[in-house]
Design brief:
Elements lengths: L11 H11 L4 H7 L4 H15 L4 H10 L24
The structure holds zinc ion (ZN).
């Protein structure tokens, strides 16, 4: 593996889940905060792992910390204007 992890396009839900994972939030707590089931959270985490091409949460967290200000920015967190946001999820 290279030490430079590529950018990955995650869904808003996946970004929110990974941000909570980075904060060491337990899966049960993530499910409660997101008002969903533990099974849903687990499958979202599995999907994140697939997209990031990692197999452990530790690797996903390292990626998430490295990409916190790019790939993990939530649509409503965009500060200023970078000259065009085409990230329109409705
Ligand atoms: Zn990134």
């Amino acid at each position: 593996m290279s030490d430079e992890s590529p950018h990955v396009q995650l869904t808003t839900a996946e970004r929110e889940v990974l941000l909570l994972v980075i904060d060491l939030t337990p899966v049960g707590e993530i499910a409660r905060k997101r008002r969903t089931s533990v099974g849903t959270v687990r499958s979202q985490i599995a999907s994140i792992h697939r997209k990031l091409n990692v197999s452990t949460n530790a690797e996903a967290m390292l990626w998430g910390i490295a990409h916190r200000d790019c790939c993990l920015v939530l649509p409503w967190e965009h500060q200023g204007d970078a000259g065009g946001s085409q990230d329109d999820v409705s």
